[in-house]
Amino acid sequence: MPHASPAPSSFRTDVLTDLALGVAPALLVAGTTGWALGLSPMFPISVLTLYALFAGLVFYLLPEQPWFGIGAANRVTVVRATLVLALAALAPHSTIHTAPGQWWIVGVATVALGLDGLDGLVARRTGTSTPFGARFDMELDSFLMVVLTILVWQSGRVGSWILLLGLPRYVFISAGWLWPWLEAPLPQRVRRKTGCVAQGIALVLCLSPVVPTLAASVGALATLLLLIGSFGVDVVWLFRRRTLSRTDGAVG
C-alpha cells in the first residue's frame, strides 16, 4: 500500500519525534550499564551527548522519504545504535579491564551484533528499503567494529595491532578519494557479509575472559587476513573493470 508523502516541515517534525523517542532506550542502556559497572553519574551524560551528535547527523543527512518519520527499519537501527554508543562511551573507563566489565561488553556487543540484519528484514517486510537505510546500517556496523577494537586493545588481551581490524573499510573509502575508480558500485557478494560477521565474532571472542589470549590473537589475525583478502578481491575487480572501460572507450 503506497504511503502519502508528508510536507517537508511535517516530515522533519516526525523525524525529530522519532529521534527524540530514541533518548529513552539510550538512557535505559546507559543507566543499566552505569549501574552494573559502578560508573559515575557522568556516564549516562556522556552516552546522551554521543546520542545527540548521532541524532544530529541522522537528521541532517536523512533525505525526505514517502512515509512519516525515519521509517520502521531506521527505528530499529536507532535502537541498535544506543547499544553501540554505550560501548563507545565505555572506552575512557578502567572498569572494562575487569572480568565483570568484559562480560558486560561481551553481552551488549553480542546483542548489537545479533540485531544486525533485523533492520533489513523490517525494511523488506514494511516496504521501507532505501539507499540511506542500507548505508545507515553499514556505517553503524563499521563504527561498532572500531569501538570493539579499541575496547579489545584497552583490555590488554591483544596487542595494539588489533586496531587494524577495525580499519579495512575506512582505508578502502579513503583510497577512493585518491583513486575515484574505487568508488564504483560493487556487485553483491556473500563474502563481504561473511567477513563482517567473522570480524564481529572475532572481536567479541577477544573480549571474552574465558578465551585464552593466544587463541584470541590467532583468531583476530586470521580474520584480519580474511578481510584484507576480501578487500583485495574487490580492488582487483574494480581495477579490471576500470581497465575494460578504458579499452571500450578507446575502441569506440
Q: Which of globular, elongated, flat, extended, rod-shaped describes the shape?
A: flat
Which radius of gyration do the C-alpha atoms yield?
A: 20 Å
Strands, total number: 0
Mean pLDDT: 87
Beta fraction of the residues? Answer: under 5%
Main sheet? none
Topology as H/E string? Answer: HHHHHHHHHH
Give the helix/strand class: mainly alpha
What separation lies between the terminal Cα atoms?
A: 46 Å
Count of discrete alpha- or pi-helical segments spanning 4 or more residues: 10
Poorly predicted sequence stretches spanning 5 or more consecutive residues: 1-7
Portion in helices: over 70%
Structure description:
The structure is a single chain. The protein is flat, with a radius of gyration of 20 Å. The protein has 10 helices and no strands. The longest helix has 39 residues. Helix 3 packs antiparallel against helix 4, helix 4 packs antiparallel against helix 5 and helix 9 packs antiparallel against helix 10. The chain has 252 residues and is mostly helical.
Attribute tags:
252 residues, mainly alpha, disordered N terminus
Secondary-structure blueprint of this entry?
Elements: H1 8-21, H2 23-37, H3 42-61, H4 72-90, H5 99-114, H6 118-126, H7 131-155, H8 168-178, H9 190-207, H10 213-251
